[in-house]
Amino acid sequence: MSATPPFGAVSADRAAPRRDWETDVAVRAAGPEFVPHVVAWNLTRRCNLECAHCYIAAGAWHAAAEEMSGRIPSITGFLVQQMAKPGAEMIVGVAHDPQFGPVVACGAGGVMVELIKDVSVRLTPLSREDAAAMIRELKTFPLLEGYRGSPRRDIAALEDVILRIGALVDSIPSIAELDLNPVLVHESGATIVDARIRVISPATAPDTGTAASRRATPSQQQSRPAFAELAQQPTARSQAEP
User: Fold this and answer.
1) Cα(99)–Cα(213) distance, rounded to whole angstroms?
2) How far apart are CA 235 and CA 93, in angstroms?
3) How confident is the model over 185-208, as pLDDT tens digits?
4) Residue pair 5/228 in contact by the 8 Å Cβ criterion
5) Cα dihedral 91, 35, 146, 7 sign
6) CA distance 239 to 34
7) Which residue has the higher pLDDT, 26 or 166?
């Protein structure tokens, strides 16, 4: 797994090879379990067209690539991603409101996003209390607590992802939309498996004022994690690992 500084959200290791031999190298480096994703400009949900496969044996890679290339003419390449360990599927996203600025959302992820529409939202800047409340407002929150004997998930790690994404979009106004789906919440740590980001020119980014001017009550000023603080902290996954 890898973390992207300075915001530190943890994602599954991946490679975007440009040549056939680079793809073979990436497949071997990914290990016995990996996921090849289609790269195509007109695809936003690869699962809808079965554009992602998981294979235990790396030898199945070439047949899978030929099969997907035959079905999807717009393919420009493949993303080879290490298989992440199981976890509860959540979504963390961002949209820009023209009046209030970045709006961060959290909810049930994977294919459940459109089906049950279980989402909570907050304006940035976010406090730790905001992130905790967003998760606990969800109807599916019991799934993270160990519903009916399932493993209890690392809720603090999901809070950490929400805070870091809030800091990211506050710092980079040109991020118009951001969609992390799914974020796998493990028993220890959380991993971003897939991400979609839409950026706009800084010149056309909406001016919604500074983060501090949008919402800054005294209690939030005290509880809100500063960007410098987040950048220096290890992620929840790295805290749990030896």
Assistant:
1) 13
2) 19
3) 999 999 998 888 999 887 776 666
4) no
5) negative
6) 25
7) 166
What CA–CA distance (Å, rounded) separates 37 from 57? 16
Angle among Cα 87, 229, 161 to the nearest 5 degrees reads 20
* pLDDT value, residue 207: 67
The distance of Cα 34 from the centroid of its chain, to the nearest Å, equals 18
Structure tokens at 56: 């235990």
What pTM was estimated for this model as a whole? 0.73
**Which amino acid type is present at position 6?**
P
pLDDT tens-digit series, residues 123-137 = 999 999 999 999 999
pLDDT of residue 80: 75
Sheet order of strands, 34-40 included: 14-15, 75-82, 34-40
Return the closest-CA partner of residue 90 out of 71, 103, 111, 108: 108
User: Of 128, 108, 240, nearest to 184 (Cα)?
Assistant: 108
pLDDT of residue 71: 80
Cα separation of 199 and 7, whole Å?
17
Q: What are phi and psi of 122, to 5 degrees?
A: -150, 150
* DSSP element (H, E) containing 98: none
In this prediction, residue 65 carries a pLDDT of: 75
Backbone angles phi, psi at 12, to 5 degrees: -70, 140
Residue indicated by tokens 């909570």: 120
Q: Which of 153, 88, 154, 158 is nearest to 126 (CA)?
A: 158
